[in-house]
C-alpha cells in the first residue's frame, strides 16, 4: 500500500503474505511519504485503493490515473506501478488474492464507488488481518468482493507512452497548463510537423491531440479542486477565458458539472 511517514508498527504484516483471500488496511489522518512510492514496484495480490481524502496519482506502463476523493483504483496483482501523493490522507487498501479475483478487471483502472461499497471497505478494515475464516468476517469479505466486481470503470485516465517526445510534451503542458498553444505551436516546439504530432498522439494513446490534452486538463482540474481550488481559479489556471467554458469542457468529458461530479464522489 502507499507508504506513510509513521509506518513503523512492529505488528504490521505484509498483506501479500497473509493467508487470507481478502485483507483490508486503512490509514485515516495519516501523512503520506510520497518519496518512498516513486519507484515502480508490484504486489502479488491485487490492490483496490479507496481514496477518501487527498489526491493520489498512479502510473503503470502505458497509463496515468488520478484518484480524487471518493473514488478508487484497481491495480491487478503483478502489475508494475508507482504511486504519488502528499499531505494528510484518508484511504483504504483492499488486497485481493488472484485466486478469488476473477470477476475483477484484468487491467488497471479507476472505479466509481457506491455508499455501500465504501462502507464495506471501511468495515472490513476494522477486521484483524488474520480474521477467523468461515464466520461473519468471511461473509463481509465475500460481499465486498461482489460489490467491487459491480463497480463501474471511471474516466479519469490519461493514456501515456514510452515515446520520449510525448513524455516531454506532458511535462511541458503540466508545467504551463494555461499555455493556449495549439497543435501547430506544440509541434513546432518539438521540432516536428503538426501532422506528425497528430499521428503520434493517435497511435500511442488512441485519442486525438485535442481530446488527449483535454483529458490532461481534467486530471489537473480534479487535483486542484480536491485541494480546495474554486472553479474560477481552475479555469484561469488552465487558460480558459471564463469559468463557463471550462464547465462545458468538463461536462463534455465526465458528463457532469464539476460541482455535481465532486458531490457525487464525496
Describe the structure.
With 266 residues, the protein is of the alpha+beta class. The chain is built from 9 helices and 9 strands. The chain has a 5-stranded antiparallel sheet with strand order 1-7-2-5-8, with helices on one face. It has a 4-stranded antiparallel sheet with strand order 6-3-4-9, covered by helices on one side. β3 and β4 form a beta hairpin. The protein is globular, with a radius of gyration of 20 Å.
Briefly summarize what is shown.
It contains 9 helices and 9 strands. With 266 residues, it is an alpha+beta fold. It has 2 domains: 15-150, Regulatory protein AraC (Jelly Rolls); 162-264, Homeodomain-like (Arc Repressor Mutant, subunit A, Orthogonal Bundle), CATH 1.10.10.
